Amino acid sequence: MKRLFKKKRFWVVLGLIVFVYFNNSSLFTNPPAQKPMLLAHRGLGQTFDMTGLTNDTCTAERIHPPEHPYLENTLPSMRAAFAAGADMVELDVHPTKDGQFAVFHDWTLDCRTNATGVTREYTLSELKKLDIGYGYTADGGKTFPFRGKGVGLMPSLDEVLAAFPKQELLIHVKSNDPAEGTQLARRLAALPTDRLSRITVYGGDEPIAALERQLPHLRTMSKASLKKCLLPYMAIGWTGVVPDACKHTQLHVPDYAAPWLWGWPHRFLARMNEAGTRTILVRDGGGFSAGFDTAEDLNHLPENYAGGIWTNRIDRIAPLIQRQTQ
């Protein structure tokens, strides 16, 4: 009897292992037909040396020699990104003194512009007078190739929404202030439902939670929402069940961690797509804006990958992806 029990337990365990393997392996699934979704971080902007970066590093002072004339988070840079093949453009927003949202990356104005302080200390019209190309240099301050060329280029969120009425946008709330989430929710609530369906917002836990309370159907993401989705998925995803927290959201997944997700890549992506969730693969954890920016970076993508790709160089990556998927 004891031997029989051991045999049954063996076959149950073996059957479970076989189930888990076949239920999560991508080897026996047909490659997805769609192409990867390309997300252009800050539009098309100047890249910079990431060696030794800290939160206080002024990245405008260490840009690579310019290969194009665009400055991040501007209307020309976003137009160039979409023209190059971006499916979605990411942009950063900050509140202004007069209750609007300026599109600008840094917390302070000191690094890139000819002003000091933070955007919320200025009205939008005052910010429009600044030169956002003032601080860029590729040679340690010997020359400033964009100085004088960035006056008036800091857009408002309203201008971005008007300029790209049908395109996919990813809005980044840079603070952890819940009032900022409420303010953004009021602005976005005025948009038609079909326009809201092409907008995603991510950022600090508190503003995103505040925004979700006002606009529960808007696609959002925060560190808290990532944990609520991925931790339960790691526990039960082997069954094929997708937790409710993973539905209608966006996931930014580091390329080194993605292989640990049940069903990665094709089954995982299919499950998330069915749940109305986008999966964006970021390079090396995405720290300090790391993206898939070179041909070598693309070697880290799974074969026949059809999820999202985060890039700072849409002008380089889109043609490479196009050739790979032809």
TrEMBL record:
Gene3D superfamilies per the UniProt record, alphabetical: Phosphatidylinositol (PI) phosphodiesterase
Domain GP-PDE: 56-321
Protein name (Swiss-Prot/TrEMBL): Glycerophosphoryl diester phosphodiesterase
BP term (GO), one: lipid metabolic process
SUPFAM superfamilies: PLC-like phosphodiesterases
InterPro entries in the cross-refs: GP_PDE_dom, PLC-like_Pdiesterase_TIM-brl
GO MF annotations, alphabetized: phosphoric diester hydrolase activity
Species this protein is from: Laceyella tengchongensis
